[in-house]
């Protein structure tokens, strides 16, 4: 889904969202079953604060939503690379604007309508603070997944805003 004018998050050119290899592999499986995909991060509590994966366009977006960018899921074993749009409610983004978000995959089933639930896994947001206009801070998250690579490493697909090169 393409962003509507004015919906790209502030901080053009800054990396806002990353994807672990585990999450990328699950997105490949989900795309094979459901077609193009999108994420929406709501401002709910509990499982309502988990990133929800839907077939692209199945979650109705409005002026209350902010487009953070498009994750690049790298090509793998005969599958082409593809992108997955990431959206967040503007109200939630106002609280999380100072963070870099990494979408990871963990065992366990969430209580939402996200596409990965029947597979016994769920997407999870891991966050770290951003520093100034230059980009992400270089801090590591305690308890981060072993294959979640810090900024500048390999194995994590990154995005910037849709108006700046990734």
- What gyration radius follows from the Cα positions, in whole Å? 15 Å
Could you tell me the number of beta strands?
9
Mean pLDDT metric: 76
Q: What is the H/E string? A: EHEEEEHEEEE
Largest sheet: 5 strands, mixed
* Integer tally of domains: 1
Alpha plus pi helix count: 2
Helix content: 10-25%
Q: What is the molecular shape?
A: globular
Give the distance, in angstroms, between the N- and C-terminal Cα atoms. 17 Å
Estimated share of beta-strand residues? 25-35%
- Poorly predicted regions are 4-13, 134-166
Strand order of the largest sheet: 8-7-6-1-9
Helices and strands, with pairings:
Blueprint: E1 17-19, H1 21-34, E2 37-41, E3 51-55, E4 65-73, E5 82-89, H2 90-96, E6 99-107, E7 121-131, E8 135-136, E9 157-158
Parallel strand pairs: 1-6, 2-5
Antiparallel strand pairs: 1-9, 2-3, 4-5, 6-7, 7-8
Properties at a glance:
166 residues, 2 helices, four-stranded mixed sheet, 9 strands
Give structural notes.
The protein has 166 residues and is mostly beta strands. It has one domain. The protein has helices spanning 21-34, 90-96; strands spanning 17-19, 37-41, 51-55, 65-73, 82-89, 99-107, 121-131, 135-136, 157-158.
Summarize the structure.
With 166 residues, this protein is mainly beta. The chain has one domain. The longest helix is centred in the N-terminal third of the chain and has 14 residues.
């Amino acid at each position: 889904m393409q962003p509507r004018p004015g919906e790209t998050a502030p901080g053009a050119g800054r990396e806002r969202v990353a994807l672990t290899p585990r999450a990328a592999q699950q997105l490949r499986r989900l795309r094979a079953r459901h077609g193009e995909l999108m994420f929406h991060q709501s401002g709910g509590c509990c499982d309502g604060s988990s990133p929800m994966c839907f077939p692209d366009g199945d979650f109705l977006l409005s002026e209350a939503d902010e487009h953070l960018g498009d994750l690049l899921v790298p090509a793998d074993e005969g599958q082409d690379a593809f992108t997955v749009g990431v959206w967040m409610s503007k109200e939630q983004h106002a609280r999380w604007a100072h963070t870099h978000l990494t979408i990871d995959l963990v065992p366990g089933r969430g209580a939402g309508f996200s596409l990965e639930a029947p597979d016994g896994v769920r997407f999870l947001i891991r966050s770290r603070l951003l520093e100034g206009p230059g980009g992400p801070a270089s801090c590591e998250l305690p308890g981060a997944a072993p294959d979640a690579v810090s900024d500048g490493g390999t194995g994590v697909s990154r995005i910037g805003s849709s108006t700046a090169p990734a």
